[in-house]
Structures are given as C-alpha cells and as structure tokens.
Amino acid sequence: MNGRAPALAGATADARSGRPIIELRGINKSFGKTQVLFDIDLAVERGQHVVLFGPSGSGKSTVLRSMNMLSEPDSGSLKVDGVEFGPGLPGDVGVKRGGRLELRRRVGMVFQQFNLFPHLCALDNVALPLRKVRRMSKAKAREKAAIALRRVGLIDRAANYPAELSGGQQQRVAIARALALDPEVMLFDEPTSALDPELVGEVLKTMREVAETGMTMVVVTHELGFAKEIGDLNVFMEDGRIVESGPRGFYDSCKSDRAREFLRAVM
Amino acid sequence: MSIFDYDWGLFWEYREALLAGLWTACAVAIVGLLISLVFGLLLAVLRKAPKPFNWIAVAYVNIFRGVPALVSVIWVYFGLALVLGIRFTVFQAGVIALSLLYSAFFAEIFRSALQAVPPGHTEAGLALGMRPSQIFFSVTLPQAVKIALPNIGSMFIGMVKDTSTFTVIGLLEVVRVTQNLVATTFQPFVLYTAAAIIYVLAAFAIDFVFRMIENAYVRPPMGVVGRGLRAHQRREIVALAARIKAVTPATGTVYTAK
After folding, report:
1. Tens of pLDDT along A14-23?
2. Contacts of residue B120 in chain A, CB cutoff 8 Å?
C-alpha cells in the first residue's frame, strides 16, 4: 500500500526519482489555422496532483488530451517516465520512443461525458478493456472489474446498464473502468461539469479517495474548492499559454492580474 | 358478376404450391440478406477509408442503388452467361442480383448507423488502450447494429417483394407459381389476390421477427425475450457481486499502488 494523507502531498517533494512521470516540452497544437497551444512546458511528478484551470477555450483540455495523445501535438515532446511518445524535440537524439497503445495503457482518462458503453452493464464496461487490453479471461476480467466497482461503492449496481445509473454513478463507473487497468497516471477532463449539482459531491469524494492512494493525477476542473484541496501544482491557462502556476496556496497568492481576475469571477 | 361469384376456394386448393413459392422467395431473400449485410458493412467501412478507396464504395452505392431488381437479375442470369459464359441456377442468379442491389442500400444504412454512435465512445476506447479494430467490433458495431435494425427489417421486406421480379428467369416464387396456376385455372383475380395476401402476411411476420430481434438488443433489456436472454448473465453478475462484497472491505482505498 502506498497510501498517504493528502495533507502530506507536498508540491514536488515526493518524486521517487528525479525524473517527472509526465513531461511536456514545447507542445504546440493547431486546429486548422487556429493555434490552440503555444510552447507548453509542464512537468508532473510521481504522486503529484496537478490542477489545470482557466477560462473556456484556454487549452486546458487540449493539454490534458496531449498527455495520452488523444490530441496529437504538432510539435514538442511528451515524455512519460523518460520514454518519448510525442513528435519529440529536434535536439533529442537517441531517446527511447513508445507507441500510442503503450502510452494509453499507462495513462487512464475520465471524460466529462462519462462515455460508458451503453450496450454493456456496469461490470462489463469495466471488464471489456481488461479483456481486450490486458488479455484477461472473461471470468478474471469480471472479477477484477467487480473489485474496482466495489472500491467506488457501486458493486450493487454491477448488473445495471448505464441508462439505469445516475450521472454521478456513471462517472464513478468510468473512474473504476480507468483504474481497473492499473494506470500510473489518471487524467480527469472536467469530470463533474456534466453533472447535476447534487451529484458532484459523490464524484469528488471518489476522486479524493483516488488522490489519497497516491495516484498521480492531472485534473481539469472548474470546481476550484476541490482544486484548492487536492492541488499540489496549480496551473492557470489562458489563450493556449500557461500564464502562471504554483504550489499549494496558489489560489490566494497568484501574481498575474488575469489569474486573480479569473479567480475573483469564479470563486 | 359479383365478387362472391369467384371461386375463392382456389386459395385453399393451391395453398401448398403458393406457400412453396413463398418459401422459395424467402430462401432467396434470406441468403441475399446475409450476403448483403456483410458486403454492406464492408462498403460502409470502405467509405470511411482514405481517398482512392472510398471512391470505390461511393461509386458502387450510387450505381447499384439505381438499378431495378428486374434489370439486375436479367443481367446476372443472361448477361453473365453471354459475356463470360458463367451459368448460374435461377436460385443463384436471384441471390446474386439481390445481393448486388441491397449491399448498396445496407452500406448506406450502416454508414448512418455507425455515424450515429457518439464519437466519445471511440475516444473512451482509445484512452483505455484498445486498438481501433477492438473498438469497432466491441463498442461501435454492436451499437450501430441496434440502430440499423429497424431499417434492415424494412429492407428485408423489400427484398422478399423484389423476388417477384425473378419470375422472368423462371424462379418458382409466389408470382411465378400464381402465373402457372392462372394458366390452368383462368382465375387471375382470385390467385393474384391470394399472392397479394401472402406478401402482406409475410411482411407482417418479418416485421414481428425484427421487432423481437430489436427488443433483444435493447439495453437495459425489455420484454419477455429481452429479459429472458439476459437473465442468466444478470444472475451470474449478481452472484459475483455478492461474493466480492463479502471478501472486500466496504470503504477504503480505490486504488492499490504497485
């Protein structure tokens, strides 16, 4: 067990090796003629909880989606545990390169719209990737899926289909589905934005529990109360650039006018 | 002469010949359906392929959607024999003619059904590390089939009706049987009415069967058939859930670090 109270999760103090688990360098991305990311540099240490926040269209989700190559950068480097998965930087020669499947098997993701498979029950939603990606037998995969559902408190809903679950429950199944694959990093793309207000709490509780286990997390969120609580590194983005970032307590001490303005408007 | 003066007893007298015709029609249509489903799906996938390849699918669909069944079967049965010297039986020619046409229709049905599956599901599959082919067969296709089913049912009714044109090559389907009976009984009104009734009843039956299949695909399962089919799985999962619940703590960590 690598359990650890969230209060102890210092900014970058916990890195087991000197090397960040995820390292973005010089990431640029355009959709057609519109450039949405400009030279993004970001390092995520093992066990760190990173919060990306900022106004809509600032590129937070695109940064997150670059981390598992759902959005392929036009240029720049994405290194996970020292292995290059992005286009790479011109100076970097002799770096070990990895494929997309390998990357995604190490990095889990949770979406705003849950994206559960509606034709499968909760248990099989979790079991399907275990069978296909981990090549487990049906029985083994279901057993592991059941344990994952147990841990997000939804074992009693295992046989239910997504249409029979509330938004909060669907999102918790989606979290269980990603966790069941034993990822090293979990990405959360506005996981509570599509939920009714009374359902946000249960999802945040589950995410808090994931954080407490020491899982490396990168979270795009508008729930700044939650961000304040778990964020070891807080990154404010606007117009495709990282404007400012800082450790715990950042929300009360940020320097840029834009970040202060944004926080005043939303908090 | 009133409508009651006709010899309606011919319905019953020739029931076996007429039903044999219906069976032939259905057999051609069912084999044609299976082939068209496979080729239709391939064409739908090909249509999303990169440029030179998708043109093949577009051209095929646009050409064969426009050919009438009558022309198609004459071309397959007589044309191929003339040009290439290939001689098909009437049954084979009927199946090929139907498959050529309906592959084009099914391609369009599958294309729209595949597009109707939310792209987020594909993204979720990718993010979970699944290969595109695994996502296609385990996530996209099952959902697309469910969306396509009502249209496939309607098309199948059309296929059964289109077999009536295969009369021209001598396939003993309902219309050909009717024609033969008319030649000996001189009762076209009665016998063509019988043929019409047979087609309508067949359409009802096909509709009923496809509704059952649709119901079996609805999630969460509905109806006696749907629930019956999933009951075993449900029991298995509930039992597994109870077992896991008994051996793992109620709350606590979500994730065990390696």
Report:
1. 444 568 999 9
2. 111, 113, 115
